[in-house]
Amino acid sequence: MVRGAVEEAEWVATSTVAYAEARAALARKEREGELDREQHQRSVEALDGEWRGFVRISVSNLVAYRAGEMAERHTLRGFDAIHLASVARLGKRFDDLHFLAFDARLVEAARGASVPVYERA
Hints:
Blueprint: H1 2-8, E1 13-15, H2 17-31, H3 37-51, E2 55-57, H4 61-74, H5 78-91, H6 104-112
Parallel strand pairs: 1-2
């Protein structure tokens, strides 16, 4: 689903916190034996290569405050709220924006915040 969404998109945007989240997930997979050291290193290199092509949304004070409000309103974890606040901020500048997430609570929060959600065609 992610590959398809990325291939369809003119550009891909993410919050800068996604890099730390991705690296943490890769490290966890190595610790738990899902990736060996070489696979982990290749995955980090692939992430680094792809990361340069993303539009990265910094966590400004405005985004952080909005994320705090969204975390309370939608019962979200902090980083999830940052992702949602980032896309809401970006959505003010672009009309054809779609949010992609795999967490059902986050997807429902996006819909509740009137953020268009990516739907697989």
